[in-house]
Every structure is written in C-alpha cells, then in structure tokens.
Amino acid sequence: VSRGRAGWNVVTTANASAAANFGVPNHPDPAERYRRADEFLQVALKLWDSWEDDAIVGDKVAPRFVDPAKIHAIDHSGTYFDVAGPLEVPRSPQGHPVLFQAGSSEPGKDLAARYAEAIFTAQPTLEEARDFYRDVKARVRRYGRNPDQVHVLPGLSTIIGGTEAEARERQREFEELTVPDYGLEQLSAIVGFTVTRDDLDRKLSFPTEDPADTFIKSRLALVKRLVETEDLTVRELLLRLSSGRGHRLFAGTPEQVADTIEEWFTTGAADGFNLIPPALPASLADFVDHVVPELQRRKIFREEYTGSTLRGHLGLDRPANRFSADTDAPVSAAS
Question: How many C-beta atoms lie closer than 10 Å to residue 64's C-beta?
Fold first, then answer.
C-alpha cells in the first residue's frame, strides 16, 4: 500500500495490561518477552519472503495470475507460534519493511543486533551515546551482519531560537506547561515505587535492589543516571523527562543545533537521529526551515532523495529472498 515506505518498530511492550488483550493471563517477564519477540520476528520474516519477487505472472491470455512454484509455505513450528503460510499478499517493493528496534536493555540490544536495521535509543550525553554505538555495532558484527547496514538513531529533542537566550526562554515556557501529577505517575511506573508531590523538592532515593516489576529496565537505568550525574530533585527530573523524555535535549540557535548533530554524527555516536519535537507542528517546522538548510550547507544532509522506498532513503540494502533459486549467499538474520 505504501509502495515500500513502511517500517516496523520491533519493541516488546512493558505495559502489563496489554497481555490481557492477547489471551495471556500474566504479563511475561522481560526474558520471555524477548524470546517470544525473537520467534515472532522469525515468522514475520519468513512470511514476507513467502512470495518470490517474480511470483506474479499477470498473463491475461494464458490466463495465469501467479506462478504457484514461487509462492511458498513456511511451515513454522516453534515454542510460541505454529504458522503454515504463505502470506496473503506479494512481497514488498523494498523486500520487507525496515526493522526498527527501540530498547537499550541487554536483551533489547541483543535482539537489535540480530534483526534491527535501525535502532532508536535514549542517550542524553555524547559519551553514553558513543559507548552504546560501539557496543551495538560490535554485537551486530558478532552475529555476522554488516554494521554499516544497522543505523543507530538516538532521540533528539530541539528547542530552537534566533539567539541562545531566546531558545532558553522557549525552553522555560515549555517547562512551565508540565503537569506534575502526570509526570509523577509515569515516574512511579518506571522506578517501581510511588513518588508523590511531597517528594518534588527532594532527590530521589532508590532501593538497594531494582524491583522485579519495574516498567522498563533501560528507562530505570536512565533515570538513575540522570539523578546521580546531574544531582536532580524530583521536580527537576520531571522537567528533564517531560521535555526530552530522557533523550538528548538541546536548546540553542540553528547553528548550535547543527553543531551538536555534526559532532555526534562524525565522532561515532550516531548514524542519524530520531527527532522528538517538543511541540507540533511548530518545533518540527523550525527544524526543517532552519536546521536542515544549515546541515545541507555542511554537506551532512541530503538535498534530494536518491530512492523511492524507506529502505532506499536510509541507504539500506534490499534483503535477499530466502526461497529464491538465484539467492547466492545465506540470508542474514535481518532478512
């Protein structure tokens, strides 16, 4: 339908209420969620390959619509899924949707290394971003995949002004719009214990051991790092989380925003960025109108598209079809 412009965010939900909507009485622990996700991905990838690229003949005279020999059952039988296949629709123009993955926990990074083609991650500082980048790229290499075909995309929230002072004032105005009660509820879910208005002007204290039912392990680790490295009170922490959700937050002029993007891009911290505009559509329009031209001037952002699919725009190879007779090389984990 999208002519090859679709992506799939391969992320396991940490929301326990979701389990009840899928016939699962208890929310699986993170390890089982990732095992299930792994097999789910195996099934989806096989189904996307179940039609070879030239399966549709389209011969009205014969008449012959498809070549049955080029449509394959997948006969998957596993721990969580039994799927015969084939899929009901032909293969996508881009082979299969681009696999995005969002998760910075150990099992999350491992799943990304096996399957993801783009990785969305929360890295508030340059050094943390570089460490994550090196770690994930090394894991990708260990799985026999090309690290250049897996893009690391940290989240980036920008507040742009004509001057740095103007940008800081805009940031202050955004922060004044935050609703503490909502933030406290979200923070309580992340840390696994109740945080109230009485705690707003205190530094958050964590138990010795992480609670077993905490929201997302990687988000808990992020919150701990923010509290410890920036010595934040709960009120200040809520402002940090509300403005950039724990991702890289930067307020400044278009040139300053371009500076930080260029530094992260050229020093092994990012292959690109996932933009998180603090306000829509104004913040996104500011970025497009003022930052993109500066990046183009520096020759680090394209001036025109070079492909017609999302995969092509990202510079990713089209995956080989595992069933095609002319497939010379083994199909990679992400294919």
Answer: 12
The DSSP secondary-structure symbol of 316 reads: P
CA distance 2 to 277: 24
How close are the terminal C-alpha atoms of the chain, in Å? 21
For 163-189, letters b (16+ CB in 10 Å) and e give: eeeebeebbeebeeeeebeebbebbeb
pTM: 0.85
Q: What's 3's DSSP letter?
A: S
Structure tokens at 59: 């011969």
**Residue-wise pLDDT tens digits, 231-277:** 889 988 888 777 666 689 999 999 999 999 999 999 999 999 999 99
What token pair was written down for 192? Answer: 């696994």
Contact of 151 with 119, CB cutoff 8 Å: yes
Instruction: Tell me if 9 sits within 8 A of 102, measured CB to CB.
Output: yes
Cβ atoms of 248 and 157 within 8 Å: the answer is: yes
CA angle 147, 135, 248 (to 5 degrees): 100
By C-alpha distance, which of 8, 40, 9, 49 is closest to 22? 40
Give the distance, in angstroms, between the CA of residue 161 and the centroid of all CA atoms in the same chain. 28
Side-chain half-sphere exposure of 186, counting CA atoms within 13 A: 17
Percentage of the residues of the chain whose pLDDT score is greater than 70: 94
Q: Which residue, among 199, 206, 170, has the nearest Cα to 185 in the 3D structure?
A: 199
Distance CA 308, CA 78 (A): 36
pLDDT digits (tens, 9 = 90+) for 279-317: 999 999 999 999 999 999 999 999 998 889 999 999 999
- Angle formed by the axes of helices 126-142 and 254-266, nearest 10°: 40
Euclidean distance between CA atoms 109 and 121, whole angstroms: 10
